[in-house]
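REVIEWER CHECKLIST
Item 1: Sequence provided? yes
Item 2: Single chain? yes
Item 3: Sequence as submitted:
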Amino acid sequence: MSLGEVRDLAESVLRRFGLGEAHVQAVAETMVAGERDGCASHGIYRLLVCAHTIKTGKVVPDAVPSVHEPSPAIVRIDAGGGFAQLAFELGRPILAEKARRFGLAALAINHCVHFAALWPEVERLAADGLVAFACTPSHAWVAPAGGRLPVFGTNPIAFGWPRPGPHPFVFDFATSAVARGEIELHRREGRPIPLGWGIDPDGNPTTDAQAALAGAMLTFGGHKGSALATMVELLGGPLIGDMTSAESIALDDGAKASPIGGELIIALDPSGFLGSTALDHIARAESLFDQITSQGARLPSQRRYDARKRSLTEGVDIPGPLLEDIRSLID
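Item 4: Structure as written out by the authors:
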């Protein structure tokens, strides 16, 4: 499929399920970006997730985000129970303007439904010449290191750094061993998952995707991932007056819809720290990237950028069974 066809399909499904027109393009574009960059777990598969979330009434389809500025360097967007994408579109230019005025600024998105990756947010801010950090809790699916009961969400963190070339330095990873969507895709395809991704309901290691989904996912790196997941819970929850992952899944009450809660995004303007020498130091940072790549190591997101280059000309491959499930939503 061409990316245009993916976009048309996504928008058709979202409209069919009654998502407000103001949200349709922003939400669909997130899925297109996932397919474009070879991130299948955050691509068109998420249409099934969004459709279910809309159907269960766990998202406000015509939510109108509202802007609040509690202090000069902080902006809060109340998403009104809608998907996070439109709230970010509203808050991004305000965040960027504040970061340039004060050197650094923060955007809190409250009361939003979040189903996507974080790299689109930080990549867009880095493209504006800003350094960016983002994090969000989700549903309590992940056990802490040494435990067996879910406490954390997949709790991703993302970082963006502007570069002179066409692509910024970006990383985005869950603090769980893997994104939940990857386990869902393994379940759909009947494939075993690697050991270390999850445990069954009795706390035993498992390679059965369904058992891991019924039990608990695991953090990456043991106690290190567990500590980072706790940090995300605090930054994206109590700090901005929003829910923890345990509170989010309790509110879900078995609907199995997308998580609702908050997202924190921090933007830093190199010029605020360095003045007229900012570009010199951004250029100097390139030596660090050269030291990494010159020995054959790969920078985070390079695989995404390579996939992006291919898909823009060749389109993307969508598994037949998944495409059938999606098209059945509008038949």
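Item 5: Key structural point noted by reviewer: The chain has a mean pLDDT of 96.
Item 6: Recommendation: ____
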